[in-house]
Amino acid sequence: MYKLLNIDGKAKRGEFHTTHGVIQTPVFMNVGTAAAIKGAVSTKDLEDVKCQVELSNTYHLHLRPGDEVIKKLGGLHQFMVWDKPILTDSGGFQVFSLTSLRKIKEEGVYFSSHIDGKKIFMGPEESMQIQSNLGSTIAMAFDECPPYPATREYMKSSVDRTTRWLERCKVELNRLNKLEDTINPNQLLFGINQGGTYEDMRIEHAKVISELDLPGYAIGGLAVGESHSEMYRILEAVVPHLPQEKPTYLMGVGTPENILEAVDRGVDFFDCVYPTRNGRHGHVYINQGKLNLFNAKFQLDDRPIEEGCQCPACQSYSRAYIRHLLKAKEMLGMRLCVLHNLYFYNTMMEEIREAIANNRYQEYKQAKIDGFNVKV
Predict the structure, then answer these.
(1) Which residues carry a binding-site annotation for Zn(2+)?
(2) InterPro entries per the record (predicted)?
(3) Are residues 268 and 283 in the same domain?
(4) Catalytic site residue 200?
(5) Residues 165 and 190 placed together within one structural domain of the fold
(6) What is the pLDDT of residues 25-71, one digit of tens each?
(7) What three-state secondary structure class fits 25?
């Protein structure tokens, strides 16, 4: 399933073979929470910006339109017209962010919908059932996402529960994959490592979940308020204790610099809302950092967002025109910025893969980070 092609330091260049195609790693997954990338981006657009994997959200799709509805329409791939890999997160992060609306029990979590207040229960089995109905390529285990900061006592209890839930997820998904009417009988399960910023707890949990021999492993509970240096410290501690011959996924990360540093520590998979969220606010990434196209200095700037960029925005439109669209609140401005940012991220991942393959990742990483610090 996962083929390791080269290792440069700790950086890994691999291929992950799935029922919906081969994922070249390291990879950035483009976030489409409700089965669509925010910013009026179609699945045809995703191909144009070199997206390999689309990520959708179990919690949101369960509430609207309903996972049973999507199953009746042939599953998520058919529903959103996308034939490449899809990863669905388990809903755990969303459920646990509803602090005032939820109650954690051993069997799962009782919570109220943020849309209409309807009472809902979700546990490991329910999360697997929803994701099975969606038919995604990769299903994420249902875990407890603890708050930051958390006491050692709370974290220990939370991590132990996450382990028990992971075991239940594995049993349930194995059962669902064997059903006659399942959408994707080859659905893969990724487990999630937790433990906050407690290195020893992270390492112990990594060892325990590695014994379950899952297709892949994620590192959760980071990028939730801790400093970047703390995040890197935890990655350095925990990644060596996850199977090198399986993909490692750092959830919810991050900035281009975060990705470059995490790849350097052995991470394969990433996802983050930054490129789409920032794009919708007129903030665009270039190799010299980030531009705010609302700034007056771009009013007469007839250059593309970035010279030489082959994204759909840069091939045709100027900074001045996109700024005008943003100021006029025309949706096209937001859409062009999102397309550019996704293209920037996916292109950076291509460059990362090439650098690792040629054993020059350190040189590439340093040049890229140095470029981001140039004043424009």
Answers:
(1) 309, 311, 314, 340
(2) ArchSynthase1/Queuine_TRR (IPR050076), TGT (IPR004803), TGT-like_sf (IPR036511), tRNA_ribo_trans-like (IPR002616)
(3) no
(4) no
(5) yes
(6) 999 999 999 999 999 999 999 999 999 999 999 999 999 999 999 99
(7) strand
Q: Which of 89, 116, 213, 370 is catalytic?
A: 89
Residue 213 annotated among the catalytic residues of the structure: no
Domain count, the chain: 2
Shared domain for 178 and 32, answered yes or no, is yes
169 and 305, same domain (yes or no):
no
The verdict on 118 and 223 lying in the same domain is: yes
Kindly report which listed range (33-42, 55-64, 87-96, 283-292) carries the lowest average pLDDT score.
Answer: 87-96
Beta bridge partner(s), residue 191: 217
The model's pTM: 0.97
Instruction: Please state the residue numbers annotated as binding site.
Output: 89-93, 143, 194, 221, 309, 311, 314, 340
In the chain, the DSSP E strands lie at 2-8, 11-18, 21-25, 27-31, 54-57, 86-89, 102-105, 108-112, 119-122, 138-140, 188-193, 216-219, 248-250, 269-271, 283-286, 289-292
Range of the domain at 148: 2-272
Whether 172 and 191 share a structural domain:
yes
Q: Are residues 47 and 121 in the same domain?
A: yes
Residue in 8, 67, 264, 271 annotated catalytic: 271
